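Message: Just now I want nothing more than another pair of eyes on a protein record. I am handing you a single protein, as its sequence and its fold in token form. As I understand it, each token names a local backbone shape. Take your time, and here it is.
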Amino acid sequence: MSNHTEQEQVFSAPEFHINDWIDANGNKTEAIKLSDFKGKFKIVYCFQSWCPGCHSKGLPDLKKMVDALKEHSNISFLAIQTVFEGYHDNTYQKIVETQKKYGLKIPFGHDAGNDGKSRSNIMTNYQTGGTPWFIFIDKHDHVVFSDFHLNPDAAIRFLKTID
């Protein structure tokens, strides 16, 4: 028997509690809430600007999914910088730069906790284990996937079946 047992756990998605956002065009916008996407399947990508794996794997995977699913209006994508270290490098300005660098026309959030220098609310509320991290939230606001490892091609095939 394996020492490593992984269990999928479905739970209700908590509200985001993030104040700093940019819209799909890189402009500062009002706080985005989970309820803004009612009835849609949500894909939340968690990253830090200084995370090498976020740039080598996570952001290219996100871009691949966004491009492949752009015609699917029932799926919404969000990228959130979930800061838990390196506050001086993982800044609000970095989300603007990252959005532009990858040509991602999706909202980006900056989450460095309520005071801008403590643990990310998403990391705490969604129990994520670092970055890069993908969270899938179904149209009923249940977390159905939350993990560091993602096969983007399998995810695209699955997401294309969602009505």
Remarks:
- Helices lie at 52-68, 92-102, 121-126, 152-159.
- Residues 1-7 have pLDDT under 50 and may be disordered.
- DSSP finds four helices and eight strands in the chain.
- The first helix runs from residue 52 to 68.
